[in-house]
Amino acid sequence: MSLQLLFDALALGGIYAIAALGIALIFGVMRLVNFAHGQFIACAVFALIVPSTDALAVLGLGALPAPVLVPLILLIGAGLAVAAEALVFRPMRNASPVALMVGSFALGVALQNLLLVLYGGRPKAVSLWAELGQPVQVATASVPLLQLIVIAAVAVILAGLALMLRKSRLGLEMRAAAEDFTMARMLGVRSNRVISGAFALSGALAAVVALVLVAQTGVADVRMGGQIMLVAFIATVVGGMGSLSGGVAAGLGIGAASALLQAGLPADARPFRDAFLYGGVILVLLFRPQGLFAPVGAKPRV
Amino acid sequence: MTSQHTIRRRMAATTPVLLALILLAFVLAALALGDRAIARMAAETLIHVTMVVGFWVFVGNSGVVSFGHAAFGCIGAYVSAWLTLRPDMKATLLPGLPEMIAAADWPVLPAALAGGGAAALVALVTGAAILRLSGIAASIATFAFLAMVNTIWANWTPVTGGTSSVVGLDRYVTPWVALGWAVLAITVAAVHAASASGLALRATREDEVAAAASGIDRYRHRLLAFTLSAFFCGAGGALMGHFIGVINPDGFYLSLTFLMLAMLVIGGVGSLSGAVMGVLALSIAVEALVRLEKGVTVGAATFALPPGSQEIILAVAMILILIFRPAGLMAGREVMLPARWVAGRASRET
Fold first, then answer.
1. The domain containing residue A153 runs over which residues?
2. Do the strands B301-303 and A135-138 form a parallel or antiparallel pair, or are they unpaired?
3. For A193-212, what is the mean pLDDT?
4. Which of the residues A148, A282, B87, B315 could staple to A110 if both were Cys, CB 3.0 to 4.6 A apart?
5. Residue A98 and residue B134: Cβ atoms within 8 Å?
6. Segment A264-287, tens digit of pLDDT
7. What is the pLDDT of residue A299?
8. Domain count of the fold of chain B
9. Is B130 in contact with A97 (Cβ distance < 8 A)?
10. Is this complex's ipTM strictly greater than 0.85?
11. Residue B191: which domain range?
């Protein structure tokens, strides 16, 4: 039971961490709280199926073999995010963070309704990699294969990103931009390249979340990105706005907390799990308003 | 001689009067057209005025965007429903209500006030926590609050009816009732904005550090505005429930949040007139789009927009406004009488 719980917590926390990273990356470079991230996820999900308003989903791209499909969906996610940046956020580059946030909210609504027009409002059944649902015996726990793959994939992605941020030129520029954007530009960091790069990465991460969600739930729903985006926001705030490692840690923590609550709460209170979670988050913020791992640069200077 | 300051105060005092007159003209025009659909649209618009003006009391003065005000509408609507539904209906629909509420059979006006009051109380408690946070973190915490209220309402079935709707609310909200509430909201918002607390709050919006250095307690003024604004959002939610006659938690979730934000941003968050004008402009635009979605016949051909395009067009309009006219339609200005009309005789002689 406890080992089972550990796997549940790791898989859920891993997904939350990936989603939180997608939001923290963009916040880091341009102080934008991206409310459209959930819709990036939903768009990547719907890219798998052929547009129609029928209840039965026909796999379009989703029927491709996985080695082709995964990079393709990641590319679609990245492309969508870069296009959104060029069309919406670049013209607003000098706007206040609040205006940017409201703009991203509007973009999210536009994308969601675009999906509604193209695909209809009803959730659709999608069977993507159904064979991954079979359980595997690990020590005392029987764990779905998918969960193991998710945990491994999250570990690889986090390690790869950490390496990229530490070693590559783009990574260095991104970290510099997150620290102090104006200063970084003065020292020769090209802002458009860094921001586009951050959006591309963020979109690709959204596509990862989308693939996992579809494989796990077997459903494509226009609203499916919303809940996970909310958790990701909370993770970035709890982790300290702009701190990538903080966001990842908080995402893992929230995933673990909700897996624990799911197992530990009495059955009557279980539907309210998320309410407890959000309440807990507000409590954490009361004691550490700047987040648990606030970067030094996050404090506004006079 | 009338001082510059007195003139400014008199000018500011004309704003709520003029806004109320504009809304009155709007209602009269809508009723004169004699169309039932238009009269309903007018009532709905004025309910939105009540809510968005309430929303502006906090967002406009403090500069902190809140995503949680739709939740106050939800609380107000359900409290009013709990208090006004017939006790025998409540026994079957909502068996989990406490004895006292289950037996209540209140008139509609006290119930709407209680709805606003309950929302204000919740705002006082949650605001005490959320408003300790600074700008963006506070906004996200209000979003968490919205999701929290929605989760509770959608799952606490014996008390709220869960995701199935609560039906049978007394539909008493005519354009005139809504006008009364809208004018009340505008008056209170104008009085609050002109008060010392409103001024202090706008000072923190402009420069947090300078305001703190001048001895302004940001937290206290924000909390007052948050509570006041929740009252009108709650009352507006109650009106909305009694206007449609059916309430359900998802009616007070993201789409209402988006609509209220869009109205405020398009009108201009910097002024009370912006809030009111944003609601009027957007309501008229939405009405036109809804008619276009149904189809317009020109000669032999019928043109219709695909369903769902209304939200897309609104969202795109909102983005365009944010890019090209970030201060909104009113750009922070108020509707007010010119200085020489209110200056009085003494100043005209000098």
1. 13-224
2. unpaired
3. 91
4. B315
5. no
6. 877 777 778 888 878 877 777 777
7. 53
8. 1
9. no
10. no
11. 4-254
